[in-house]
Amino acid sequence: MKKIIITLLTLLxxxxxxxxxxxxxxxxxxxxxxxxxDTIDTxxxxxxxxxxRWLEDDRSPETEAWVKSQNETTYGYLDHIPFRSELKERxxxxxxxxxxxxxxxxxxxxxxxxxxxxxxxxxxxxxxxHGTSEIFLDPxxxxxxxxxxxxxxxxxxxxxxxxxxxxxxxxxxxxxLVMDTETKEIIEDTLIDVKFTQISWYKNEGFYxxxxxxxxxxxxxxxxxxxxxxxxxxxxxQKEDILIFGGTKEEKHRYIYAHVTEDNKYLVITPxxxxxxxxxxxxxxxVPNGKLTTVLDHTDSDTNIIENEGSKxxxxxxxxxxxxxxxxxxxxxxxxxxxxxxxxxxxxVLNPSTSGGYFFTEYxxxxxxxxxxxxYNGKLIRDINLPGVGKVNGFGSKKEEKTDYYSFTxxxxxxxxxxxxxxxxxxxxYWKPSIEFNSDDYESNQVFYTSKDGTKxxxxxxxxxxxxxxxxxxxxxxxxxxxxISLNPSFSITNAVWMEQGGILAVPNLRGGxxxxxxxxxxxxxxxxxxxxxxxxxxxxxLIENKYTTSDYLAxxxxxxxGLLVGATMTQRPDLxxxxxxxxxxxxxxxxxxxxxxxxxxxxxxxxxxxxxxxxYLKGYSPVHNVKAGVQYPATLITTGDHDDRxxxxxxxxxxxxxxxxxxxxxxxxxxxxxxxxxxxxxxxSKIIEQYADIFSFTLYNMGFEMLxxxx
Length: 712
Description:
Blueprint: E1 3-9, E2 24-30, E3 40-43, E4 46-49, H1 61-78, H2 84-95, E5 99-100, E6 104-106, E7 109-115, E8 123-127, E9 134-137, E10 148-155, E11 161-168, E12 173-180, E13 185-186, E14 191-195, E15 200-202, E16 206-212, E17 227-233, E18 242-246, E19 255-260, E20 266-272, E21 280-284, E22 292-296, E23 303-309, E24 312-317, E25 325-330, E26 340-343, E27 349-355, E28 358-365, E29 368-374, E30 380-383, E31 391-394, E32 403-410, E33 413-421, E34 427-431, E35 442-450, E36 456-464, E37 475-478, H3 493-500, E38 504-508, H4 518-522, H5 530-545, E39 554-559, H6 561-572, E40 579-583, H7 602-605, H8 612-621, E41 635-641, H9 650-662, E42 669-674, H10 685-702
Parallel strand pairs: 37-38, 37-39, 39-40, 40-41, 41-42
Antiparallel strand pairs: 1-2, 3-4, 5-7, 6-7, 7-8, 8-9, 10-11, 11-12, 12-13, 12-14, 15-16, 16-17, 17-18, 19-20, 20-21, 21-22, 23-24, 24-25, 25-26, 27-28, 28-29, 29-30, 31-32, 32-33, 33-34, 35-36, 36-38
Helix pairs in contact: 2-10, 5-6
């Protein structure tokens, strides 16, 4: 077995808990032996070795034994961290406050979700008029350990029936149960093998959902690339569900979603080949045996129907409008040449919703929310006065309602809920959390820095007020940079605990995200993906140059596509940070598309089979293929879940094996594999607290702290 000596500080710590290099003790990390195999793939006459291919078999006893031994090594190391239990206690303490959601009306009841504090899953409550609240659905009863979670929950049009999905062990594969909302009894057999779906009701008669055929081989890793939409009629078995769209050999769609308009008039179907771009079809449900009508027959845009008044359709689209706009068209002739602009594109990215018979248009202004209210004629009614600078969510009440609710948050403000009078635009505080965290003690500032090619990139830096810029502040640089996803300021209990210890949280809005529209997204895709890594590296350099931190106190962190970001950054610039924290990362860029629905990510990544240039580009930054012997990489804690069937854990397994075999120097390379956990959604609170206690303690320990640096 390979051994690495980890240098640790003695318990003779200065009061301020700074680094003390005078005395050190050694801890030996014995990495489990990972066998290699002679697997070779050939791309465009180039042979590529894959010595850890065997770790892709998630059903193998050998892989199971490897996972067990790696976890034993990791937890053995973490057990040596003296303040790990203290961090867990603080996370539990701060987490332990009541959290509720905005209320919503279904039938005769007002529903909301609530968590008393440390419950593993949120509980759905309801009440009638001004009556007493009662528990309606408690996901904590689904399993003893909280690993079965609630997914989507959709009420029939009169609110009398609920269809809801559950996830077991964090898997994206779901089951759908149907409940009578009055008696709370399950009234049908459970629908099984459902994945990546909405549940959308037609009246009270049945609902539409999407899924794949069960794959051959491993349910958690085998490829799924033929999505289908079904209609389930109440009172009939699943085997009689009607195939509505998909399943033809001539035309594969990896993601197909369907929803019914609020007035039950139209079925809207949005087939996708990848995560960006969709076709669009409608079906008039008032016409017996009606046919699908094509609105868009290509995937060059993201376009959807968000409202209708009779046959008048309202669409949000980025077709010839990279920052999106709202257009109208009649359903009888709905193709793009007939579209009429209602709310034109602006220089800011549009994210609209409907509420109470109005459009509420949220615009991202440098990742910060601005909301405006329009009527259905496109007339501006008013700007909505928000509680501060941050991110809002909500604005989704039914057309006949006069009251709506929205939430507001930023990096140092816990989420509060506001009640909106739709007719007057007046907001009032509806609910504010009682949490042991004083926002006034912290500040959050946006800066703009210059990336490698001269592009200006925004970043929000949050920390305690009065922080001394001495280069010695423990700092987490968190990023994503992909799939048109925007990182907007929002409060996190885990980040709050980090900042309590004197830590800095820095979040840049990298290219590849959606903060500045389609052009910003595309600038971080395929053969421009290096822009994302350059943006992230430049963010780290900005923090160092401006004395927020130094490399010895910097950690880089990201999950999923952000895990790829961390993997690429640490292999390209191993000197940038002391600690690397790649979570559930896409790390093998030559084979990512061969697992589950990974082929649908090709819009962002391209594939190794696409052409020689794309293969060479992917191989040039693929983290698994760019770990080099003789290099000292940052102290690394890779995290993943054994039931992750979105980004399969083999990515993380292979990256860990490469790092453990080639790491030079004293920095540890560990992998923490959560059991009965998936990509992240639905993870029990107890597991989240344990994960972050491990992540933060590992980070601070490898920055040289033997006690929590609260005095910084």
